[in-house]
Write a structure and sequence with these properties.
One of its GO terms (molecular function) is long-chain fatty acid transporting porin activity. One of its GO terms (cellular component) is cell outer membrane. The protein has 413 residues and is mainly beta. The protein has one domain: Outer membrane protein transport protein (OMPP1/FadL/TodX) (Porin, Beta Barrel). Strands 1-3-4-6-7-8-9-12-13-16-17-18-19-21 form a 14-stranded antiparallel β-barrel. A two-stranded antiparallel ribbon has the order 14-15. Strand 6 and strand 7 form a beta hairpin. The chain is elongated. The N and C termini lie far apart (54 Å).
Length: 413
């Protein structure tokens, strides 16, 4: 069976997922402070750096939360002045984690997150319909982890990543006057993460972490074609009764390096900063290789469809702060800048990414062992002059987006 590379993810909120299709929504408290990572008050630190579990004050910590992310993307053809807007549903990333310290210098935990994926929906008859009409991507990370305290001021942690994913992608096949749906609900992959967490001074936390790439492999994908006449199916080697073909796929989810620090300026006021580096160069092209359907563009094998992506590695800069109004009420603010992983001449409607400034804020409430956090964010994506000569796709792209979250924590002992 030929290899198929299907990297077709969209973001539900370009503001928070501006860099490719990475979702920066794994902790409500963290989001309110620009999604910074060096916070070890509860189990929400587990996804960001498993080593941070060693510095959670309580022996047992449980957290869970969810987000709503809304965005719209507008593309205007500058030759015709025709404007097209997406009708994306609200994205709902989720997270949950637990951390437990059975003995003094050993902590174990588990994290569930949705770090990649969302939905984008363009009109079915828009000018980019051969690229995408609607695309849904979902990914789920399951991470068992362990952390060891090497000294009172430093710990090391690591986790195994088991990932599950789903893809559902609609696009037009205009050469035959029809449409194509690519679907797989059982994609899976694996990876790992590790990190060091430092507290050299009671006022300073430093987090250094790495998360590996994960190749999501779809082994039982189905490609369903719909044409005005069923007589076309046998000519393309498709099942004459269903119009279906088979494919396998690999979706690359990229690696990430993070350095974060938090400094307590006063007992009530702290400041946090993060630097993220994302390995998007892995996504260099999109290749669809069908079992039988000859709708490709590769000389010698018409079943292979290749489109260059030319992503590049990108960076994110984050700055956040928290102030304790009382022992029970906390105010938080933040801002960050997220680079797009491709230039204007490689803009694609499947992954509409922008250089984006994001402003965040929120409140935290602590009631003995219980905590409630709320957060929100507003993005300022920078408009792009689209000049993708390979696709004949030219114009101007704009976006607007916001998101909000609610998180709960419980530290019983």
């Amino acid at each position: 069976m030929k290899k198929i590379l299907v990297s077709t993810a969209l973001l539900a909120g370009v503001l928070s997922y501006a860099g490719g299709f990475r979702v920066s929504l794994q902790g409500v408290k963290q989001l309110a402070m620009a999604h910074t990572s060096a916070h070890a008050e509860d189990a929400s630190v587990a996804f960001f750096n498993p080593a941070g579990m060693s510095f959670i004050p309580s022996k047992l910590s449980i957290v869970a939360g969810g987000f709503g992310a809304s965005n719209k993307i507008t593309f205007q053809n500058l030759n015709t002045l025709q404007s097209t807007e997406t009708d994306n549903p609200i994205g709902t990333p989720l997270y949950a984690a637990v951390a437990y310290r059975p003995i003094e210098n050993l902590s174990v935990g588990f994290s569930f997150t949705t770090p990649f994926g969302s939905t984008v929906q363009w009109p079915s008859d828009w000018e980019g319909k051969e690229m995408v009409q609607k695309l849904e991507l979902k990914s789920f990370y399951f991470q068992p982890m362990v952390s060891v305290k090497l000294a009172p001021w430093v710990s090391f942690g690591a986790s195994y990543i088991y990932a599950k994913g789903k893809v559902n992608w609609d696009k037009a096949v205009t050469q035959f006057g029809g449409e194509l749906n690519i679907k797989d609900e059982k994609a899976s992959g694996s990876g790992y993460s590790f990190g060091f967490y430092f507290r050299p001074d009671p006022k300073l936390d430093v987090s250094i972490a790495y998360r590996s790439p994960v190749d999501m492999k779809a082994k039982k994908g189905t490609a369903t074609f719909q044409f005005p006449s069923a007589s076309i199916y046998p000519l393309l080697g498709l099942d004459p009764s269903t119009g279906q073909d088979k494919f396998t796929a690999t979706l690359p989810l990229v690696e990430e390096y993070t350095i974060g620090l938090t400094y307590k300026v006063t007992p009530k006021w702290l400041v946090s900063a993060d630097f993220n580096y994302h390995g998007w160069e892995r996504y260099s092209k999109l290749t669809l290789d069908f079992a039988n359907a000859p709708i490709g563009n590769t000389p010698g094998d018409p079943t292979i469809l290749v489109a260059p992506k030319n992503f590049k590695n990108s960076k994110t800069f984050r700055l956040g702060t928290q102030y304790a109004f009382t022992d029970m009420i906390f105010g938080r603010l933040g801002a960050y800048y997220d680079e797009s992983p491709y230039s204007d001449d490689h803009f694609i409607a499947e992954t509409p990414s922008f250089n984006t400034y994001v402003i965040t804020g929120g409140l935290g409430f602590k009631l003995k062992q219980f905590g409630v956090d709320v957060a929100g964010g507003y993005a300022l994506p920078q408009a792009r002059d689209v000049r993708n000569a390979a696709l004949g796709f030219n114009g101007q792209a704009k976006a607007k987006a916001f998101y909000f979250g609610l998180g709960l924590s419980y530290n019983p002992f």
